[in-house]
Amino acid sequence: AWHTFQIPLKGRTRTGLLVASLVLAVVLPVGTLIVYRADPAYSADREAFRSAIQLVEQGTVEGDVILVQAYGQPLWEYYANDSRAPVEWYSLPLHFPSGAELDALSSTGDPTPALDSATIALFESLPAQFRRVWLINDLAAPPGDLRLEAQWLAQHRSQVGEWNMTDASGTVQVSLFSR
């Protein structure tokens, strides 16, 4: 049987415990996040990540969308925690193409067979919804080094710009596409 224990607290003591509990519930997680923000294990030392996100935040306008390659990768974690861009953003799925898919890409030049089906579905819905597409890609993290998403977007939209931010850990590429 469940028992409920009641501690007889009165007035100030009860209020004090409630306030202390609320303070701990907020201060501890926020304090931990502040400490992690500067931790290299969370990519805080990646100047290329910081520069890429600043470029995108300064360049986005209403009607844009941001795509981040890929879910669960360090760039995605950094973006999810540090970006303040005022537009919608999506994480692309982490997908490693098979040898057969890469062979098809080599023979046809079409990246579609090597991309995840969820990525293709997202890309095909973009023209109706968004005027411009920003793609942020960590070229040092597989499968970003294949640049499949950038190839697909370049074949289906106009590429407006491309910027490379490099630091000691690698290069982050930001590509901008328009209808």
Brief account:
The protein contains six helices and five strands; from the N terminus they run H-H-E-H-E-H-H-E-H-E-E. With 179 residues, the protein is an alpha/beta fold.
As an assembly, this protein is single chain
> Roughly what percent helix?
40-55%
Task: List how many beta strands DSSP finds.
Answer: 5
Strand content: 15-25%
Q: How does the overall form come out from the CA principal axes?
A: elongated
Low-confidence stretches: none
Q: Order the strands across the largest sheet as they lie in space.
A: 2-1-3-5-4
Span from first to last CA? 65 Å
Q: Count up the helices.
A: 6
How are helices and strands ordered from N to C? HHEHEHHEHEE
Give the overall average pLDDT.
Answer: 87
What does this structure look like?
There is one protein chain. By secondary structure, the chain is of the alpha/beta class. The chain has 6 helices and 5 strands. Strands 2-1-3-5-4 form a 5-stranded mixed sheet, sandwiched between helices. α3 links the parallel β1 and β2. The mean pLDDT is 87.
Primary descriptors:
179 residues; alpha/beta; five-stranded mixed β-sheet; 6 helices; 45% helix; 21% strand; elongated
SSE blueprint:
Layout: H1 11-37, H2 47-59, E1 64-69, H3 74-82, E2 88-92, H4 99-108, H5 117-129, E3 132-138, H6 148-156, E4 158-167, E5 170-178
